[in-house]
Amino acid sequence: MKTLIPLLLMLVAMPSMAQRQFDIEVIIFNRAVDAEQTDESWPTSVAEIDLEKAAPFNDASYRAKKGVQMLPASEYALNDEVNKLKQHAGFKVLMHKAWRQGDQGRFAAPVFHVQAGRDYSGKFNPDGSMINAQQSQILEGITEQSIPKPLYQLDGKLQIYVEHYLYADVQLDLKAPSVKEVTLEQHQPTTDNLEPAVDNQVVQVGLMEDITPTVHKVEFLKSYRFDQKRRMRSTETHFLDHPLMGMIIQVRRVNQ
Q1: Residue 141 confidence (pLDDT)
Q2: Mean pLDDT along residues 87-102
Q3: What backbone phi and psi angles, to 5 degrees, belong to 203?
Q4: Which of 114, 98, 96 is nearest to 154 (CA)?
Q5: Which of 36, 116, 144, 214 has the most crowded Cβ, counting Cβ within 10 A?
Q6: Nearest CA to 175 among 129, 130, 221, 219?
Q7: In whole angstroms, what is the distance from residue 102 CA to residue 12 CA?
């Protein structure tokens, strides 16, 4: 009987533990700095973020499946922080959202596909290359159904989950126009129709031709990766930093 009492107490407590709810509020902003002027060494290209299990905030069926409820603006608690960022010339708020979710672990908690900021699809292709004049003419004549998908300034995924502690797992790409140098194929001088050497004279080939490689600067859309995992405490406000952007996260336990 003494053994059964702790087991019964545990069974009674389990439903209430499973019903824990958290209000999560997130602000994402970028910094008004030139990425190429920072001390960081940025790769020209990055691997695509795996979005297979992610869904956008506006996917109602996904939210229902994951037990997520979007919160109205009247329940936001970080409006003062947003206003301070908006009043500062060095920052631009890209996203401010809040939602309620349960205390699921990493394999069950919702993974949100984050898309925000400027849409670059009118100027750049998905691979970052510029849309040339010919492509622009084609795009103007295509039907609405085949218009290229938006190419947002901020794109990636965000997950908040519970495994003994609260965790934030973030993978985001901040996209911005950049310039890279492209070297064209070097011109090789031709030896066709040259007179053969006579009387031990040296025939010098190509001295009058410019064989210096041609270098062009090409504009392209570069992705700067934000990849962080942070352990958090509820009721505390956490700041995730990056040379080009920042994220403010607050997780509030819901009193039931």
Answers
A1: 56
A2: 97
A3: -90, 115
A4: 114
A5: 116
A6: 221
A7: 19
Give percent above pLDDT 90 in the chain.
Answer: 62
Tens of pLDDT along 209-238? Answer: 656 667 667 889 999 999 999 999 988 999
Query: Within a 10 A sphere around the Cβ of 33, how many other Cβ atoms?
Result: 12
For residue 228, which of 246, 245, 240 has the smallest C-alpha distance?
240
| Length of the chain, in residues | 256
Sequence-distant (6+) residues with CB within 8 A of 119 are 150, 151, 152, 153
Q: Tell me the whole-structure pTM to 2 decimals.
A: 0.78
Which strand ranges, in their side-by-side order, compose the sheet holding 21-31? Answer: 69-70, 91-102, 21-31, 245-253, 237-241
Closest CA to 227 of 158, 165, 160: 158
Q: Is the pLDDT assigned to residue 194 strictly greater than 60?
A: no
Q: Which of 29, 16, 49 is nearest to 171 (CA)?
A: 49
- Which residues, listed in sequence order, are joined to residue 230 by a DSSP beta bridge? 168
Q: Which two tokens stand for residue 130?
A: 């510029």
pLDDT confidence bin for 148, thresholds 50/70/90: confident
Neighbours of 39 (CB within 10 A): 5
Residues 6 or more apart from 75 whose CB is under 8 A from it?
23, 98
Residue 143 buriedness (CB in 10 A; 0-12 / 13-18 / 19+): exposed
Q: Which two tokens stand for residue 72?
A: 């109205």
At 109, phi and psi to the nearest 5?
-65, 150
Distances (CA, A) of 167 to 93, 106, 145, 158, 232: 23, 9, 39, 11, 6
Bigger pLDDT: 76 vs 184: 76
pLDDT confidence bin for 84, thresholds 50/70/90: very high
pLDDT of residue 38: 86
